[in-house]
Amino acid sequence: MRTPAKAIIRLLCVSALIVAAAATLNFAVDPLQLFRPARFTPAMYSSDTRMQDAGLIRSQPFDTVFMGTSLAIHFRQRDIDRVLGVHSLKLSMTGSNSHEQSFVVAAALATGARRVIWEVDDWIFCNAPDIGSDVYLPADLYRGNARGIASYLLSGAMARESALILMRSVFPGKPILARPTREALFKFPLSRVDDINSLPPDADVPGSYNAAKARAAFADITDPVRRAYLAEGYNTDAMVGNFERDMVDLIAKHPDVQFDIYLPPYSILQWVAMRDASPATLQIVYDFTAYLARRLAELPNVRLSDFRAVQEVTHDLNNYGDVIHHSPTVDLKVLSWLAAGDYVVDRSTPTASLEKLKAQVETYRVAENP
Description:
This protein is an alpha/beta fold. The chain contains 16 helices and five strands.
């Protein structure tokens, strides 16, 4: 055999050994805990929830799913469990759409969960790519099919994470990387599920959530140069179709599961921004949420709560980091409202809370509320 041929064969053999070693390492360490809960190495978790949720569903015990967008991302599971008396798994995903959320909730329900607590806002029902075309959500990891497992086991990036987790288990008292480097490169920095996307204990909450930030965000989104953003993606027919497909169909397929759906307490400035800068968009929101409330009222395993007109929260701008994202203090209020059944939408008058919101939006004057 000629020397070039031998070199090619040798290269192929070495490459195959490297790939096999990476797959073996990934299977043994299993950073996402897709195959088993962590045993031989410490459990570590990522804040990339679209990826991490696939492992959480397979490795964590739970009876309740907590789903939502960035408005539900900072809740702590221990608070959800304590206030609501459940064993929850937080699967909220920043910027997620209804198609992504429905897909992940369905995967969680396949494990036997009996309750879903779902933060829902109008924006999530805007058109989005099909799951198979969604480059941000690794759908095959949730499906557990051959392509998903192969992509996981043969991933060089995942092998690096496996090696770092293994090194941390062998040398538990020694920092493997300098802190700035570790935070930049290590994708699994968290040792507790409860810490995933939760604010650290030393977070500057007053500095992050205050009226000045809320007003600055309001000025930004109502600026003539940027106000087109308010209308982006809003189309009543498309939103209704996505709502029926992603939420109503899922609920109907699981009649034995209790769905607690809530509309979050945006600050009043979000609605006023639409009123002043994009009234057609506000009307779309009103029309769509009226449809949503009436439709959900028909489903016996749904309890809808509407927190959008809770004036003592939504008009206190110190609760917000912008016009929609509320502070951890409001997180706890939301849980307490859910536990007490406060602001539950009456099936016989499903749009009453919406009418209350409309009245507040119509009369609110920014200049009169410094």
